[in-house]
């Protein structure tokens, strides 16, 4: 069921602000703009209101031991650096392997 349905869809907000920087998550992070200008949904990204952090669905479920210490498996909540960390994560080999395993099982 997890692979068929994927992660829960993002709520509309409002999102809680972090106490240290007064920043918050934005739904704009749910999308990635490709070099050709196309906007693609990050279907692997999950948000927890309770923890006020984002997670990688693919790495949590299919990452195995090599992803167990990933910041997106444990939860990431530094909104100031999120854009660069998302790009870094989604282009990494461990995420790519986990994402492909998820999509292969899904089909």
Automatic annotation (TrEMBL):
It comes from the Eukaryota. It comes from Culter alburnus (Topmouth culter). The lineage of its organism: Eukaryota, Metazoa, Chordata, Craniata, Vertebrata. Residues 1-21 are annotated as: Disordered. InterPro entries: Znf_TTF (IPR006580). Residues 30-107 form the TTF-type domain. This is TTF-type domain-containing protein.
